[in-house]
Amino acid sequence: MATAQTSLDEFFEQHNTLSNIKPFVSELKKELKMMQSKLDWFTHYVEQIDRVHDTIVEVKIQQEEMQHNLINDQQEWSEIQAKLAQTSGKGKVTLNVGGEIFQTTIETLTVEKPSFFTALFSRQWHVEKDEEGSLFIDRDGWLFGHILKYFRTGEIDIQNDDPVLRKDLMIEARYYHLERFAELLAAVPPVIETKRNFINSTILSSDYELKLNEFYGNQNQQWRLIYKASRDGYATANFHDVCDGVKPTMIIVLSKNMCSFGGFTQIAWTKQKKDNTDSNGISVYIEKST
C-alpha cells in the first residue's frame, strides 16, 4: 500500500513538472518557427544576391565583347581610311548610276560607314566601267540623286511625304547598306493631309497648284495622277500605255537640273504620228528647285 502511494505521488509530481514546462515548450516552438521563417527569408535573399551577381558577370562579359568589337571596328575603319587616302584623282569620282551621271568625291560617298561605298573603295572591288571610264552601278539614278543629296546635307527631303518614294528609297538604303539613312527614312513624321487639287503630286506646291488652276479657269478643279515616271516607267511606251485616250491632261515635268515646267491640252494623247493643234493649250515654266 505504501509503495502504491509512493508511485502515485511520483506520478503527480511528474505531472506537475510537465505542466510547468509546457508553457516553455510552447514558447520554444514559436521561437523555432520564427527562426525558420527568418532562415527562409535569408535563403531567398542569398538566392537574389546570387542572381544579381550572375547578371553583373553577364553584363561585364557583354561590355567586354562590345568594347572588343568597337576596337576592331575602329581599327577596320582606320585601315579603310588609309586605303581611301591612297585613291588616285584627289578623291574625285564619276558614277554612272542607271545611266545618270554623278560627279562627287569619295569623302562624300563614304560619309556614312560602313556602307556599300566604303567597301567599294577600300577593298577595290571590281566594278564595271562605262565607255567614259565612270564607275557603273546598275541602280535607279533618280533615286540615287536623293541619296547623294543626303550624303551632302545629312538630311532627307521627301516632298509631301510621298509613300512610294519613301518605299523606293528604303529599298535603295538596304542595297547600299545605309543604316542611318534607313533610320531617318523610317523616322520621317507623316505630313498632315490637306486638300490637294493635284492629288499625289510630289512636284507642285499648293501655291502653284492654285496658279495652274487659274490658267485652267477653275480654281477648285481636282486632277488625278495617272502617270508618274518613277512609278510607271520612263519609257515612251509606258507613258502612252496609261495616257492615251485621256483628256484633258495637265503635264508637269521635273528635269535633271531641277527645273519644273509643263503644259495643258484638251486633246487626247495617242501613239499615232500626226499633228494636232489645241487652240486652248498652254505651256508653263514653274520654277527651278533649290
TrEMBL record:
Signal peptide: none annotated. InterPro entries: BACURD1-3, BTB/POZ_dom, SKP1/BTB/POZ_sf, T1-type_BTB, TLDc_dom. Pfam families: BTB_2, TLD. Residues 198-290 form the TLDc domain. Residues 91-160 form the BTB domain. GO terms for biological process: protein homooligomerization. SMART domains: BTB (SM00225). It comes from the Eukaryota. This is BTB domain-containing protein.
